[in-house]
Amino acid sequence: MIFLLFIIEVYSLQFQSFVHIIPHPDKVAKGGEDAYYANENLLAVADGVGGWNNQGVDPSKYSRTLCENVKEYSHLDNPKEIMQVASELTNHILGSSTLVLMKLIDNILKVANIGDCGYTIIRNQEILHQSQEQQHSFNFPFQLGPQGDSAQLAQEFEHTLQINDIVVVGSDGLYDNLDENQILKIINEYGVSQSSAQLLAKTSFQYSLDKSYSSPFAKRAQKSRIRFMGGKSDDITVIVARVINSNEL
């Protein structure tokens, strides 16, 4: 009688991530109005809505507190539930924020996204998925806040990931100034590193100041029959993450 012994290696996937932030030129002193949180299985970027400045409200207070509450409840598995709880705990603060939040559980990436932050998934040097912004109307994104939208309106997605997949997450300061092909080109050349996160942010920043650049934001404006040319000056937050076997660390 022959006995066969099968050994199955069990492993979990996690993120190895790098972050770079460039504030809007007028908001350098306070570090901008974006916020983020990242750990080995959760990535989140929030963008405080700048229109609150016109009412004497600092938008960074809402977005930063929101991400602090995301961190507090990052142990939950459902990203929309994390978003809901975090926003409810933040809604004592006047302001609002967009938010993209994703949780990697085994090999499944669960995403909740409200507003115009975004993410890109790259596999084998090709775009696997590119998120789309969620807008009430042009340049008026869905947003969490005491006077904003419910987290229940967030878009939800699931993606099956593999080792060495790459996830880029960013505020609209990235996606208003670089399209997915420009992002792909930088990632394919520089890989997943602090340098690639920095270069994505710096390239976005350079284009944001170029008044003759046909930016993704300008193209969307034209589709809405709004005259606009150039990049979109804004805070820029970029997270670049590689999916790895947890045993690698």
Number of helical regions:
6
Gyration radius over CA: 19 Å
Question: Using DSSP, what is the number of strands?
Answer: 12
The residue ranges in which pLDDT falls below 50 over 5 or more consecutive positions are 5-10
End-to-end gap: 42 Å
Question: In what range is the share of β-strand residues?
Answer: 25-35%
State the major sheet.
5 strands, antiparallel
**Could you say which structural class the secondary elements and strand pairing correspond to?**
alpha+beta
Secondary-structure element pattern, one letter each: EEEHHEEEEEEEEHHHHE
User: What is the averaged pLDDT score?
Assistant: 95
Using the alpha-carbon principal axes, give the shape.
Answer: globular
Helix content: 25-40%
**Strand line-up across the major sheet:** 1-12-11-6-7
Q: What does this protein structure show overall?
A:
With 249 residues, this protein is of the alpha+beta class. Helices cover 26% and strands 30% of the residues. Helix 4 runs antiparallel to helix 5. It contains six helices and twelve strands. About 2% of the residues have low confidence. The termini are far apart. The strands form three sheets. A five-stranded antiparallel beta sheet has the order 1-12-11-6-7. The radius of gyration is 19 Å and the shape is globular. The longest helix is centred in the last third of the chain and has 15 residues. Its cofactor is Mg(2+); Mn(2+). Keywords: Hydrolase, Magnesium, Manganese, Metal-binding, Protein phosphatase. It catalyses: O-phospho-L-seryl-[protein] + H2O = L-seryl-[protein] + phosphate; O-phospho-L-threonyl-[protein] + H2O = L-threonyl-[protein] + phosphate.
